[in-house]
Amino acid sequence: MCEQLKVKLASLLAEGCNSSQSGSRQQLRSSNAIQQPRRLEPPASGGGRASPVLPVAGQRNLLVTSALPYVNNVPHLGNIIGCVLSADVYARFHRQRGVNVLYISGTDEYGTATETKALAEGVTPQQICDKYHRIHADIYRWFGIDFDYFGRTTTEQQTSIAQDIFWRLHRAGHVMRDSVSQLYCAKCEKFLADRFVEGTCPLCQYADCRGDQCDKCGRLINAVELVNPRCKVCSAAPTVRSSEHLFLDLPRLQPQLLAHLESVMDAPDSQWTDNAKHITRSWIKIGLQPRCISRDLKWGTPVPLEGYTDKVFYVWFDAPIGYVSITANYTKDWEQWWKRPDEVTLVQFMAKDNVPFHSVIFPSCCLGAADNYTMVRHLVATEYLNYEDGKFSKSRGVGVFGNDVQATSIEADVWRFYLLYVRPESQDSSFSWEDLMLKNNSELLNNLGNFINRPLQFLKKYFDAKVPEISLSQEDLRFLHAVNHELQIYIDSLDKARLRDGLRRVLNISRYGNQYMQLNKPWAQLSNKDTAARAASVVALAANVACLLGALLQPYMPRVAIRVAQQCGCLPTKSAQQPQAEFGDRPPLLPIQHPMRRLLPAGHRIGEPSPLFAKVQRDQVDAMRAKFGGNGARGD
Question: Domain residues for 514?
Answer without folding.
Answer: 446-612
